[in-house]
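Entry type: protein chain
Record version: 2
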Amino acid sequence: MIKTLFLCLFLTFITIPAFAKNWEMDKAQSSLSFSGQHAGKDFVGTFREWNASLIFDPQKLEESKIIITISLPSASTGDNLYDKTLPQTEWFNSQKIPEAVFTSTKIASQGGDQYQIDGTLKLKEKTIPLSFPATITLTDQNATAQGQVDINRDTFDIGMVSDPKFEWVAQKVTVKFTLTATQKN
């Protein structure tokens, strides 16, 4: 009986999988921006406040995950008109819904440091699937992830009351990110 108990305990411990590594975001070295066109002119904005949770190991992609939480009131373009418009109900509605959240559902290797990231973006009470390529580079105790994804404003009902035909603001907005992180102990 005791031998059986020890054998069961031994088998339990040897079958425990190693988990993907946890990484901590370096906010000073990371950035999240958005860009598009308004009245035929390019604009660029940033989110000053956002955070990412990164669990990543290229040998354990099935356990890898990224969650990005964005503070919508922190959006800034440097243009007073844009910055006053973005928080309004028809645009980000950031007083009622102050956060957007991207959650990965799958990270797949495309060879080398290239990956395909699938997930969902929850923005303005809508959760929409997104898929985009990213470069994830690991060096010593550091990780850097870079990528971009195009988002259609109409998919998230952004600015569709005042500009339903995209006459002023382009339909597509590009979101770019650079996430730098250090490995947690």
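Comment: Residues 19-183 form a domain with the Lipocalin fold (CATH 2.40.128.110).
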